[in-house]
C-alpha cells in the first residue's frame, strides 16, 4: 500500500508588505494570532518589506483576512535555504524532497534589492521546474504549492500555501495596465479595489450599464473614468475641473459642491470617495450615506496620516457599525485593505443591505 507523504509542519508565517509598513504588518499578525491564543513572536527589519511570525498555531490567516500583508506564506523551516551562485537548484530540491507540490513560486519582497531578482528568477525558473519534475516533487494534483521567498541571491525562505490562502497575483501585486486616456494615475487605485474586493461574477453584476454612482472628490476624474469605462452613470462632485473627454461621454454630470454636504436626488448604487480628510470624518460620511439608503456600496480612501493606523482603522470600523445599527441596514461586507497602489492610504469597502 502506498502512503501519501504528510504535509510538513508549519513553523510560522512570512508576510510581504509595502516597504515602510513592517510595524503595522507585524502588529496585525500579533493581534491575529493573539486573538486565537497562539504562542509566537514577530521578527522584522525596518524597510525590508517583510515580517515573520514564528510560533505554533492551529490556524493561519489567509492574505485576504489581513489589511497590511500583501501575501502570506506558511513557513516550513525556521531557517532559510542557503545556496551559492553555482548551484541553487540542488539545495532547493533537497529542502523540498519528500513532498509533492502543485507548483513552485519564486517571490521576493518589494524592495529595490528584491526587485533586482527578476533576472535571477528568469534564469532559475525553467531549470528548477524541470529538475523538480524529474525528482517527482511536482504533481498537478498536490494540494500545496511551494513558495521560495528570496532574501537575496544566496538565500530564500521556504513556505507553502493552498489555493485561496494567497492572492492570485505574484507577491500580491496586480499588474494593471495604465490606460492612455485615463486622467491621472490614481485611476489604478479604484481599478485595483474593484479587482481585489470583488470576484469576476460580482464585478459583472455590480459594474455595468444601468447602474449609478456618485464620486466625491472626483477631479481630475481618474475614479470617474473607471466607473464610466464599466458603463455606469456618474455624478462627479468636486469644485475642481473634470477631464473634458469624461464630460463629453454623456455618462457624467459634474456637480460643483462640497462633498461633505452633497446628497443625490435619488439613491445610487455606488458611492466612491477620495476626499483628502481625516479617516474618521470620511468614515462617518460613508456610514451616514449608507445608513440613509443613499447608496448600497462604497469604496473609500482613508488617508492614514495618523500614528497608530491599526487602532484608527478599528475605530473606523466601530463608527460604521454604530451608525448602521439604528438604521436597520445589515453590513454584508466591511473590509479595509492597504492596496498595492495605496501609499499612506488604506482603501475601505462597505456593502449594506
Ligand atoms: C486626491 S484628489 C481626487 C482624485 C480623483 N479620485 C481622481 O482619481 O482623479 C482629491 C480631490 O478632492 C477634492 N476635494 C477636497 N475637498 C473637497 C470637498 N470638501 N468637497 C469636494 N471635493 C473636495 C479636491 O478638489 C481634489 O480634486
From TrEMBL:
Domain RlmM ferredoxin-like, residue spans: 12-73
Annotated catalytic residues: 303
Domain Ribosomal RNA methyltransferase FtsJ: 185-247
Alphabetized Gene3D superfamilies for the sequence: 3.30.2300.20, 3.30.70.2810, Vaccinia Virus protein VP39
Gene Ontology MF: a single term: methyltransferase activity
Residues binding S-adenosyl-L-methionine: 186, 219-222, 238, 258, 274
GO biological process, one term: rRNA processing
Organism domain of life: Bacteria
EC number from the UniProt entry: 2.1.1.186
Pfam families: FtsJ, RlmM_FDX, RLMM_N
Enzyme class, spelled out: transferase
Record domain Ribosomal RNA large subunit methyltransferase M THUMP-like: where: 87-161
Keywords noted in UniProt: Cytoplasm, Methyltransferase, rRNA processing, S-adenosyl-L-methionine, Transferase
Keyword S-adenosyl-L-methionine: yes
PANTHER family: RIBOSOMAL RNA LARGE SUBUNIT METHYLTRANSFERASE M (PTHR37524), RIBOSOMAL RNA METHYLTRANSFERASE FTSJ DOMAIN-CONTAINING PROTEIN (PTHR37524:SF2)
Name the UniProt record assigns to this protein: 23S rRNA (Cytidine(2498)-2'-O)-methyltransferase RlmM
Organism this protein belongs to: Alkanindiges illinoisensis
Organism lineage: Bacteria, Pseudomonadati, Pseudomonadota, Gammaproteobacteria, Moraxellales
